[in-house]
Design goal:
Layout lengths: L5 E6 L2 E7 L10 E3 L9 H8 L2 H12 L6 E5 L6 H8 L4 E6 L2 H13 L6 E5 L11 E5 L12 H11 L1 E8 L2 E9 L1 H5 L12 H10 L7 E3 L12 E7 L9 E7 L4 E3 L1 E9 L8 E2 L10 E4 L6 E3 L4 E10 L6 E9 L7 E5 L11 H6 L11
Parallel strand pairs: 4-5, 4-7, 5-6, 7-8
Antiparallel strand pairs: 1-2, 3-10, 9-11, 9-14, 10-16, 12-18, 13-17, 14-15, 14-16, 18-19, 19-20
Helix pairs in contact: 2-3
The chain binds S-adenosylmethionine.
The site of S-adenosylmethionine (SAM) has 23 residues, from α1, α3 and β5.
Length: about 375
């Protein structure tokens, strides 16, 4: 580990992963595991999302602008029932708030009652794909958008809602989400520090491993992608448009032209989200501080490769349903346009590939992880 400003920490009594120092020695950017796609929501995660003003303003505005006089289904209402309450406040005639996690649904029921909307909002416990509604809804809102747009299963959730839960002319919120990619020189930002998890979120690493059943190179997010580490402007690699009939996962090839000298450490993935079709400017997770932190896929190489302005990368990004038929698996490759070997070939499976510590980045991050995983 080269992270002079980070230390390894033992949670559960053992040394596991690098955790960043806090206070004046804190590195400029730290890592947080990508958690939104796993059923491990708790009070901290819900409170971070509810306090995310950029996200809340976008969804709040979109719901308020269409809910009056309509019926609404809020899929994945969470413990705070945010959009169900906004819909009721704005004059929706009936709201169904669906939540898969029983404890969160119970909390949502208490929030709805405390806000005086129990006669309008019904909280239903279960996966939306197993829920029947007494009638089809006019509006479908679901904040099951991931740090990679499709990673929390919004495509499958909306596809099922279109078939069974809403009218043909239903309004979908969000309206459109894109995933964008930026080649990133994280060493230029970290200096002599190494990659390390933010202390507050390090314990979620083991929660993801417990959910999946084994340790693997889980998706990680940087707290920020500072401009000084960006090697090219963002390019779009995934487009989800929810007014079209049925979403189909595809493989997309794009090109990124390097516009500054640096070292290619990997690709950062952010989202751009239009909650409603009239939104001119999207929520942009690479430009704004939101709870959708940018995912980072490290290079496969042992050392970040030096790049120069004018170099061109060919990126391929593809998604396909994972074995749970809901959360996508991803493949992301990057190669210089004038070379055939890839600099990166990422097997981003939801339930984890067979490999753990498969690249230099993950070996450094998990240098201290124990050889045997007991699922504690
Ligand atoms: C990112 S949180 C959003 C919570 C809340 N809607 C908000 O925006 O503040 C996603 C929530 O959706 C729930 N969820 C995900 N997929 C679901 C599904 N298919 N059916 C019901 N709930 C689901 C999760 O358990 C989680 O509580």
């Amino acid at each position: 580990m080269t992270g002079l400003r980070s230390r390894s920490i033992g949670y559960g009594g053992r040394l596991r992963a690098n955790v960043a120092a806090v206070g004046e020695n804190a590195p400029r950017i730290t890592l947080v595991p990508s958690v939104g796609e796993y059923p491990i929501y708790d009070e901290l995660l819900y409170s971070v999302m509810t306090a995310d003003e950029v996200r809340v303003e976008a969804f709040d505005h979109a719901v308020r602008s269409c809910a009056a006089g309509r019926t609404v289904v809020d899929i994945g209402t969470g413990a705070d029932a945010n959009w169900a309450v906004v819909a009721a406040e704005s004059g929706a005639t009936r709201v169904w708030a669906i939540e898969a996690l029983p404890e969160s649904a119970e909390k949502a029921r208490a929030v709805v009652a405390a806000r005086g909307f129990a006669d309008i909002v019904t909280v239903l416990t279960g996966d939306s794909r197993d829920i029947e509604l007494p009638e089809k809804a006019d509006v479908c809102v679901s904040e099951t958008v991931g740090a990679i747009a499709s990673s929390e299963g919004v495509c499958e959730i909306f596809a099922d809602a279109k078939r069974r839960l809403v009218h043909d002319s239903a309004i979908f919120i969000p309206h459109r989400v894109e995933t964008v990619a930026v080649p990133f020189d994280y060493a230029a930002v970290l200096g002599d520090a190494g990659p390390a998890f933010q202390a507050e979120y390090a314990t979620y690493v083991d929660r993801v491993f417990q959910t999946v059943g084994h340790p693997f190179d889980l998706r990680v997010c940087w707290t920020e992608i500072p401009h000084e580490g960006r090697l090219a402007p963002p390019i779009t690699v995934e487009v989800l448009q929810f007014d079209s009939r049925e979403y189909e996962y595809t493989m997309r090839e794009s090109r990124a032209r390097i516009d500054r000298a640096g070292r290619f450490g990997g690709i950062a993935l952010g989202i751009r989200l239009w909650a409603s079709p009239v939104d001119r400017d999207p929520v942009d997770s690479l430009e704004q501080r939101t709870s959708w932190l940018p995912v980072f896929v490290p290079t496969s190489g042992e050392q970040p490769r030096t790049v120069a302005p004018g170099d061109e990368f060919v990126l391929t990004f593809g998604a396909r349903p994972s074995t749970d038929h809901r959360h996508p698996d991803y493949r992301l490759t990057a190669r210089f346009a004038d070379r055939s070997d890839p600099e990166m070939d990422w097997d981003g499976r939801y339930l984890g590939g067979t490999e753990f510590r498969s690249t230099a980045f993950y070996r450094e991050l998990f240098a201290a992880y124990p050889a045997t995983f007991r699922g504690e």
